[in-house]
Structures are given as structure tokens and as C-alpha cells.
Design brief:
Number of domains: 1
Largest sheet: 4 strands, antiparallel
Strand content: over 45%
CATH architecture: Sandwich
Structural class: mainly beta
Mean pLDDT: 92
Order of helices and strands: EEEEEEE
Radius of gyration: 13 Å
Number of helices: 0
Length: 88
């Protein structure tokens, strides 16, 4: 990836409850952002700080929902990242 590019993930059949998303990386000169969308690509919540890890929490109200997750490389060039999604 280079600055300005995104990776996309689909999260399907998500149960009701709290969903926490954490994105971390090793390279110091890199900054990622996270955007969470509903099934129709309407933005629900985002995290665009310079923090590592970048985190966000979203309360899923209905079971069976589908979400789209965008991992956007705001600054820097190719870097591996670790994505953790926890659901309570």
C-alpha cells in the first residue's frame, strides 16, 4: 500500500452487542485510519487519529447485520498491519 490507498473488509452476520476494532502497525512513519460502514456503505463511525493502535467501538443493535470496514493508509508507504475485531 501507498499513502491514499485502502483495504476493504466485509463483516457478515454480526450479532448484536459491542464490536471493538483495533488496528496496529510496526512502522513509525505510517498512519492508518479506520472507517466502518453499514451494508449500504453509509459511514457509521471512524477513527482517524495519529495513535497506534487506531481503535473504535460500535454498538450493534440487531443480529445478522453486515458491515464494511475500510483500512485507509493516510500517511507513509507499504506497511503490514494487524487487525483485531472483538465482539461482546
Amino acid at each position: 500500500m501507498i499513502s491514499g490507498e485502502s483495504d476493504y473488509w466485509s463483516l457478515s452476520d454480526i450479532n448484536a452487542g459491542l464490536m471493538e476494532i483495533s488496528l496496529s502497525w510496526v512502522a513509525e512513519s505510517v498512519d492508518f485510519d479506520i472507517y466502518l460502514y453499514d451494508s449500504d456503505w453509509n459511514l457509521l463511525i471512524s477513527s482517524y487519529t495519529s495513535d497506534n493502535p487506531e481503535t473504535l467501538s460500535y454498538l450493534v443493535l440487531e443480529s445478522g447485520m453486515t458491515f464494511h470496514l475500510e483500512i485507509y493508509l493516510y500517511q507513509g508507504s507499504t506497511s503490514d498491519y494487524s487487525l483485531t475485531i472483538t465482539h461482546y
